[in-house]
Design a protein that fits this description.
The chain folds into two domains: 14-49, no CATH class; 51-196, Nitrile Hydratase, Chain A (Alpha-Beta Complex). It has helices at residues 9-14, 17-30, 36-49, 52-64, 66-74, 76-82, 117-120, 125-128, 130-138, 140-146, 183-189, 192-196; strands at 93-98, 103-108, 156-161, 166-171. With 201 residues, the chain is mostly helical. The longest helix is centred in the first third of the chain and has 14 residues, at 17-30. The strands form two sheets. The protein has a two-stranded parallel ribbon. It has a two-stranded parallel sheet with strand order 2-3. The structure holds fe (iii) ion. Fe (iii) ion (FE) binds next to loops.
Length: 201
């Protein structure tokens, strides 16, 4: 025996995520658990703090400190916490994957759009698109070429599928001719796409 479906169930499921989130917010506010002002304040603080400069700082440190690089690749969350990003990475396990001349890494979330937002900033719309999510795994070389990143046929490409529990950060290859640069200058070279793997740096 199955219960008759709740009349609004289908309508509810088909609502866009933003509308469902808003509905949840309204219920939490109506229950007296928080206020619009509190939610706005929290989101403002979160987004002010969530930027690719965070991921770039981690990369610059890995480029200049071999031991830090080893720790980062062994345990991304602990290494991020070392640089003060503990609170930003507390809700998931961070895994750093390093590019080398013979190996390139790229991240995707085939299910939705999981991504270490606090270290990379808000995800770009192409990252959330069905086209990227479906093609990145099947034909990564073509997808990367679409970003203007033409890798030699000898370069192996590893695609990492993020989940809400495990999120990835790509450590690009340090560009040649950057020996004299300070860590902040190195960090300025790193782009969000570089941290996703759709750009070289
Ligand atoms: Fe996701």
């Amino acid at each position: 025996m199955t219960e008759p479906a709740e009349p609004h169930a289908h309508q509810h499921e088909s609502l866009p995520v933003a509308a469902r989130v808003r509905r949840l917010e309204e219920r939490v506010i109506a229950a007296g658990l928080t206020t619009d002002a509190e939610i706005d304040e929290l989101l403002t603080r979160f987004y002010a703090d969530a930027a690719p400069v965070n991921g770039a700082r981690i990369v610059a440190r890995a480029w200049t400190d071999e031991e830090y690089r080893d720790r980062l690749l062994a345990d991304g969350s602990a290494a991020a916490a070392e640089l003060g990003f503990g609170p930003q990475t507390s809700g998931f396990q961070l895994r750093a994957v390093a590019n080398t001349p013979g190996r390139h890494n790229v991240i995707v979330c085939t299910l939705c759009s999981c991504y270490p937002l606090s270290l990379l900033g808000p995800s770009p719309s192409w990252y959330r698109s069905l086209a990227y999510r479906s093609q990145a795994v099947r034909e990564p070389r073509a997808v990367l070429a679409g970003f203007g990143l033409d890798l030699p046929a000898t370069t192996r490409i590893d695609v990492w599928d993020s989940t809400s529990e495990i999120r990835y950060l790509v450590v690009p290859v340090r560009p040649a001719g950057t020996d004299g640069l300070r860590p902040d200058e190195l960090a300025a070279l790193v782009t969000r796409n570089g941290l996703i793997g759709t750009a070289a740096v």
